[in-house]
Amino acid sequence: MKQLLTFILLFAGTQLFAAGTYTDWWQQANKLYDQKEYDSARSLYEKIAAMNPSEASVYFNLGNTYYRLNDVGHAVLNYEKALRLDPDNKEIEDNLALTQSRINNRIAASGDIFFVKWWKNITAATTAGAWAVLSVITFLLIIGIAILKKLNIINLNILPQVTGIAWGIFVVFMVLGFISAQNKNGHYKGVVMENDSPFYANPQQAKAQAYIPEGTTVTLGEQNGAWTEVTLPDGRTGWMQLLVLSKV
């Protein structure tokens, strides 16, 4: 019992120390940023991000700091990370767009077809919670119907069809929730971190098809050793070396 109490006190003390350190670093980093000491602010923000990698505001501030340091690649990377955690934040979107406008020889994005936009909207990371709630409600409805049938409270001829439709809706909600959760937690985007990074039709090709500017956001696909398949903003698909990319 004494050992358990000691462990609890030690754990609580560690958590309080970590919380205090986080708050101190955050306040100090913001102060350094306001004083235009961007290198020092960046160092502290990076430590905070390592301590709390699920906080969008940390990556947003990091993006702002790298922007001030004229490091377009790292600025885009951190804005993309912030946007993955907080996809409806207009300020993050605006700062990302401003930073991308500074990319030399920027690759213009092609517009998505309407049904692709629709799919992206319903499977966005922010919808995962809604699909989970709808799945639970549908499942409870199915259980409720089964209980009422068992107790002979309801006995309709269409009950099997209703139950089948409910199960179908439940499965759809579960699938959409799973995909949305994957989009929230998965690393399906990458940012080119070196200027004029070679872009190949396949890993065996000797000559590059194109050279991609630093700060370009790509969609990641199949990985093959030190290579990964990528889709550029204009829709072209090819291969790049992993060492020139950072995952969002």
N-to-C order of helices and strands:
HHHHHHHHEEEEEEE
Whole-number count of domains? 3
Largest sheet: 5 strands, antiparallel
Shape: globular
Q: Give a count of the beta strands, DSSP E runs of length 2 or more.
A: 7
CATH class of the largest domain: Mainly Alpha
State the end-to-end CA separation: 45 Å
Tags for this model:
single chain, 248 residues, alpha+beta, SH3 type barrels, two-stranded antiparallel sheet, 8 helices
What does this structure look like?
- With 248 residues, the protein is α+β, with helices and mostly antiparallel strands.
- The chain folds into 3 domains: 2-100, Tetratricopeptide repeat domain (Serine Threonine Protein Phosphatase 5, Tetratricopeptide repeat); 114-185; 189-247, Roll (SH3 type barrels).
- 58% of the residues lie in helices and 12% in strands.
- The protein contains 8 helices and 7 strands.
- It has helices at 2-34, 38-51, 56-68, 72-85, 90-100, 114-122, 128-150, 159-185; strands at 189-192, 197-199, 210-212, 217-224, 227-231, 237-241, 245-247.
- A 5-stranded antiparallel β-sheet has the order 6-5-4-1-7. It has a two-stranded antiparallel ribbon with strand order 2-3.
- A hairpin with a 2-residue loop joins strand 4 (217-224) and strand 5 (227-231).
- Helix 2 (38-51) runs antiparallel to helix 3.
- The longest helix has 33 residues, at 2-34.
- It is globular and about 75 Å long.
- The two termini are 45 Å apart.
